[in-house]
Amino acid sequence: MAANKGPFNAPPRPHPPPVHATMVQSDPHPTEPSTIVPLLSRALHRIRSTPPRIIASPATQPRRAAVAIIIRVTPPPTYVLPQQPITDGGSPANVPAPSLTEFFQLDWVNAPGARPEILFLRRDKPDSASDSGHMSGSGPITREAHVAFPGGKTEEGDEGGLYTAMRQTWEEIGLDLAESSYTPIGQLDDREITTSLGKRLLMILSPFVFLQLSPQTTPVDPSPGTTLHWVPLASLLPRPVGDGPRWSSVSVDASSRLAPRHSTILRLLVRLLVGSMKFPAILIPAGAVPSTSSEVTDEKTIDAKRAQLEGNGPSPMKRQHSFRSRHGHNDETLKLWGLSLGMTLDLLAHMAPPEVRRGGAGALLLPPDVESELLRVPVMAPSLASVFPRFGYPDVNFWIWVFGKRYRAVIRGWESSVRSGGTNDRRINWTGSALTTFYAAVRKALVVVIIVRAVWVLLGLLCGGWLLFMR
User: Fold this and answer.
1) Among 87, 141, 152, 245, who pairs with 129 as Cys (CB 3.0-4.6 Å)?
2) Which residues are CB-contacts of 355 (< 8 A; sequence separation ≥ 6)?
3) Where are the domains of the chain?
4) Residues 6 or more apart from 89 whose CB is under 8 A from it?
5) How buried is 342 (Cβ within 10 angstroms: 0-12 exposed, 13-18 middle, 19+ buried)?
6) Which helix (H) or strand (E) holds 69?
């Protein structure tokens, strides 16, 4: 790190980072669409000017958490940055940080090939307060790694959610968001973290957006078992603006949600009756595999450039290989899902122009099967429709649709407010309403499914017994 003392009187952190806590660089694209930077500018200005939906913590559950959504713009590897002014004493001059408008007017930000990126973390041991994989329900151990944002629980003495996000980021990855190289943009809507299929509130989560104002990224020192992934926004945005998100799913054993942990028989019964839950997920590029000799050259240039920007250590690709070879992560798949997916989609939705948002193009950020799930509803609120699971058994999904009338009404209500006013109604907790109504439909559907299957089992036993005794 550039300094040993952080803004929260944190103890000195050793440097350089240990081998097991590395910076992993995502797959760079040879070219970056020139439209990404203007869209990012529009999104950040919109977030700064739009008051977030704040959810007050009930007296029965006062716990809160906060995460930091950190965005940077990486200049092209061949771009020569202007030298920083030097004072008479030979030290760098104290140049004031640019405003948000001034930042998006800088030459290196608008240079062809400049690439906006967003920071995700991959944790070996997910934290229950900040990791979307754990909060969304971690099923059986798989080779799928879940990525999330830096952050965690609010502690006594924190001055607010923004302070929590900054403190947790410092403690977890050694990045000081109080430096002049970073500026807080604003807050996205609060989100409710629940368990037991939305029946019990765990805490309120507040996402805060930060922008890196300098082309150089401060050297970091992540906690052991934590890797950093700077992911191009182009890989998350739909075509023709970006490359289009690669949708997948994360399977979770339904018995881990519905049955007591220590009741083996009941968990086995629920597993047989209900099956698994599949949460939508976006595949995160974890490394580059060049296919041509020219791409190899570009890859080496980019690695050398960013290794210099992020510290005088080994290149990101070499450190990635060292980390994965020691911890067995060489063939795992990185996936963005759950709460982290919802918050990411909230951010990406701000990048759409107003005329596109009113036209329903937000459906381009939806999983391929969600449109049929909502019966052709022109969904403009992707984060309300892309984070809820489907079940492995078709009849369970059918009964969820039967009891999901109120959930679909919430989606239509959100879209109606967007179409009429250009922004969603801040008086209504749309995400909370969607969460409540969807899981209410799930609970009713599961009751019906279990009863129907129990009846069929009983009828089968009766018929079997009748045939046995008749002989």
Assistant:
1) 152
2) none
3) 23-351, 372-471
4) none
5) buried
6) strand 64-74
How far is residue 8 CA from its own chain's centroid?
A: 26
8 Å CB contact between 347 and 209: yes
Place of tokens 């005088």: 312
Q: How far apart are the first and last CA of the chain?
A: 82
How high is the mean pLDDT in each 10-residue block of the chain (471 residues)?
47 41 45 71 92 89 95 91 64 74 94 93 64 37 73 93 96 93 94 81 95 89 89 85 82 79 80 85 64 35 41 38 40 82 87 55 53 44 72 90 90 74 66 87 89 86 83 65
CB 345 within 8 A of CB 382: yes
* C-alpha–C-alpha distance, residues 383 and 341, integer Å: 8
Residue 107 CB-half CA count within 13 A: 4
What is the amino acid identity at position 120?
Answer: F
Could you give phi then psi for residue 76, rounded to 5 degrees?
-60, 145
DSSP string, 337-392: EHHHHHHHHHHHHTTS-HHHHHTTGGGGGS-TTHHHHTTS-----HHHHSSS-EES
116 token code pair: 């906006």
Count the alpha carbons within 13 Å of 24 in the hemisphere toward its beta carbon: 28
Cβ count near 319 (within 10 Å): 20
From 3.40.50.2300, 3.90.79.10, 3.40.640.10, 3.30.499.10, which CATH number describes the 23-351 domain? 3.90.79.10
Residue 300 confidence (pLDDT): 42
